[in-house]
């Protein structure tokens, strides 16, 4: 492990570059100043900077900006102009300190081209007015650990993608690429690529890529506008805890939980093997978007899913390695700690020598502040139920309470403990305004 | 039998099946072997309540119980096993309309089953009318609605309203479960209880039945 002060310097350098807003064509000097102030507030929270002026507010959103405008989930995923404009409007209306990552809505037509089945989405398995939803299944069998361990890329390409991307099913018959090392052995691989079903699959991949490229070019105009108006984005890249990759996308929760007893050594090898790929994925996004924050949604390590002993053995060590790997590349790991982590807070305190953030969902924020305050940046904890079913007055009152409880150590970012699929105007406004009213230090 | 009970409770799956087969081969009373499984399940339940066991152990327990039953059943006299495991209550469970998530629901169903409930699982994305219809038929003590998304709140609320409109609200306890459930949501929906994890759901159910 590198000298940690050097690692923090690298993180600070990336943060400074991000705060400067270099390369953004701002609308005016005022919006440039606003951008720098907002990004600066977030950075100060990550740095546990004592001179921070105010608690930053950062509502995480998926479909909320579109749904709040009456745009269906289907429309949000098929019309990048509508989705992009909704994200612009959300920033204008609520003036958050960080804007949501609109590209996380993804583009329905590309998913259709790929016959994607890892998720169901509006109009394709769920009603058009709703959001996309994960479709967990056993996409990797118990006897395939060695495949994954020996070569994760090959496993993705020739085993997992054919099962989760229907149009890429022929990839399962692709010969291994390794023959390409020498002319006489190159033939088999290329012949496999030339087979008609493979050609169809490659065409589908080309088409989906083109669709996504056009989509982001359209949406990009709105993303640029959001930054030009003075709003930094809350994430540049994303990756996952290795355990969650296996649990969510490969084995399925139930199967993996049995593997902990039936083949614990294979699980340990596999999570270890996914560390570098996850670091690479996170860093690539952060660098491409010139934004150091790497979003890591945490799932199956939550309280109730496993014991502390299991967490310590199977979940935490490789998540921590991913976080440190990201930090060494100058990135800020931002864990979205879904569920409750009341039994795990001590572990999180271990990462106090890097700049990182833990955004909590159902964890007791008083306890989080007590255990982690002054050590790492904490965020979130505000109940989405208040936003959806309560009144502006109550939301304002609860927001003040949350800031008092969680914000006392100056390393707190106010956020709702949930990626918002929906919202209500008056309570959302009350929430964002309350941060500015009560969050002054 | 203590060796078998310990092996089950300690999650030694291979040894459990070996011992079960061995006892059967030796001509031990299958009902007695089945009792050992029941005793082990009780012990697992205790460890669960003491927070030493979590989801992985419950899933393993379910797996061992299933595999063990398959070995034992052919040797059991009819109705012996069924009656001994006497059900303590009926639970109707479903993921509400619009939501297709089922991990939480399935774990709850499995633990309820291990705890002696007769469980009817209607699956995911289930419309209110279908749940009400099934409830009329099955006559559960408790109806459990699962939903991961906040978008599940309104369909759950609509379900409770329908139940009330049909004059059935007092006949069943209604429990809601999911990541974003809290008292605020519970009141909004008009449910009797909310839980965010499987154990809490099972404990609450047992508490209701004992009342």
From TrEMBL, chain A:
SUPFAM superfamilies the UniProt entry points to: UROD/MetE-like (SSF51726)
What InterPro entries is this protein classified in? Methanogen_methyltrans, UROD/MetE-like_sf, Uroporphyrinogen_deCOase
Q: Which residues form a coiled coil?
A: none
Q: From its record, what is one biological process in GO terms?
A: porphyrin-containing compound biosynthetic process
Domain (Uroporphyrinogen decarboxylase (URO-D)) ranges: 236-437
Q: Name one molecular function that GO assigns to this entry.
A: uroporphyrinogen decarboxylase activity
Instruction: List the protein's name.
Output: Uroporphyrinogen decarboxylase (URO-D)
Automatic annotation (TrEMBL), chain B:
Which InterPro entries does this UniProt record tie to the protein?
Cbl-bd_cap, Cobalamin-bd, Cobalamin-bd_sf, Met_Synthase/Corrinoid, Meth_synthase_dom
Instruction: State the superkingdom.
Output: Bacteria
Question: Which Pfam families does the UniProt record give?
Answer: B12-binding, B12-binding_2
Might you name a Gene Ontology BP term for this protein?
homocysteine metabolic process
Q: Which residues form the B12-binding N-terminal domain?
A: 1-84
Task: Output the Gene Ontology cellular-component terms.
Answer: cytosol
- Organism equals Desulfatibacillum alkenivorans DSM 16219
The uppermost taxa in this organism's lineage are:
Bacteria, Pseudomonadati, Thermodesulfobacteriota, Desulfobacteria, Desulfobacterales
This chain's protein is named Methanogenic corrinoid protein MtbC1
Q: Where is the B12-binding domain?
A: 88-211
